[in-house]
Amino acid sequence: MLKILVATDEKGVIGKNNTLIWHLPADLKRFKELTTGQVVVMGRKTYESIGRPLPNRINIVITRQNDFQAEGVIIVHSLEEAILKAKSLHRGDTFIIGGAEIYNLALPLVDEIELTLLHDIFDGDAFFPKIDTNIWKLVSSERGLTDEKNPYQYSFQSFKRIEEYKN
Known about the structure:
The protein is an alpha/beta fold and 167 residues long. It has helices spanning 25-35, 44-50, 79-89, 100-106, and strands spanning 2-8, 13-15, 39-43, 58-62, 74-76, 94-96, 112-118, 126-127, 136-143, 154-161. Strands 5-4-3-6-1-7-10-9 form an eight-stranded mixed beta sheet, with helices on both faces. Strands 2-8 form a two-stranded antiparallel ribbon.
């Protein structure tokens, strides 16, 4: 199954200056639980912000740069190529993990969105598109626990594409 995994604020902000704005260990733990043993697809800038391949996952990086090289990742030059490569290598889930341009390209193609929604507003320069409730149905929402390590109010939300809008 093809899924988007993203964390946003109330306005859809996902980052600033190619970095995450917030530190939310509960979100990082969920990210690891969902993606370990699966395929993760990301743009080059997202890969560079992470700085290394994510362990125990098949890492696919999309770039327009023909000479881009990175050890431990599969390099492709389009989202379509990334999806085909993921399907050829793995029978489990494939997670699109950013950035903004890749999310925009992937949104019409994915089956599910796994969203961490921070109930706050941040100053950012990268955004996730608004989730159209005519196309996407919220199937679960779980309020996260705020504590000294997780200082923001947040919810884990799962959306499924409404059947009539499937490709």
